[in-house]
Amino acid sequence: MVVLCVAAATTFWVLNALNKDNYTTVVDQPIEFYYDREEFMAVEELPTKIQIEVNGNGWDLLRKHFKVNVVPFPIELTDPSAQNYLLPASFQRALAEQTAPTQLTAILDDTLKIRIDRIVDERLKVLLDTNVNPLAENIRFASEVTIQPDCVTVTGPTSILEQLGGQFLVDIGERELRDRFSGRIPLVLSEEHEEFLTLAEQEVEVSFEVVEFLAGQRVVKIRELNFPASVSLASRDSIVVMQYLLDERQTQAFADLNLEAVVNYNTRNREDSTVTVTLRQVPVYLDSVRFIPDIFKLEYE
Q1: pLDDT in tens, 184-200
Q2: Which residues contact 265 (CB under 8 A, 6 or more apart)?
Q3: End-to-end CA distance of the chain
């Protein structure tokens, strides 16, 4: 019986308190942005609520606290790309009308950050993604990479398109290629861009030729340049071994080539008195040229 009396008294006190006016509290007010979504796109999540301070009847404040019959406040944006923030003071009067019968005493958020860009079409140059090497070891491109069409139309917000730098990179999806390639490649947007961008074209035709570079080595004579009479190489060896990769189509031209390994005194390292071995002229059909040994110590009289 005592418990029932306490419960009844508490209920009566609460109901009586809620019937009183002039309470003040802070609540979350839902907001919703309205703009032409065919012309503009949000590139960052927009605010969905603001904190406001309201004064009024206890029952009204309780309903707002539990969001009973509370509708989002609409914010109209005519050109959202022209601004990256919104001052709540600009819509305070309209919000005060919507929060009636409670009285809006303050908006606690100073600014609302928004990032909404205009949607545009842009033609991007299609290029093979050089961050991923599709070729096998010692295989090189033997021709230009042909891509048709060489440009694609991408639609999306301006700031996202700027991240692409005017290029659309494609990965042919092949690895360790040893033969020429020709095939249709689907165009795929990255995960970070797929929610913002759309493509007018769905695939491109990619083709290119390849060539193998053969590993080899050859004994080469050393030629000294610009050496004073008082300076010589500490080593008495007059030859070095040159290791290289050779375009398989140029084996005869390479065999007929008269090569010299050069040590130039003018390019010496003054700190440790050494000179590096170089090839006087490297033919375009040679790659990864190195010498054994590749450095000689200088000897002074």
Answers
A1: 999 999 999 999 999 99
A2: 224, 225, 226, 227, 228, 231, 275, 298
A3: 118
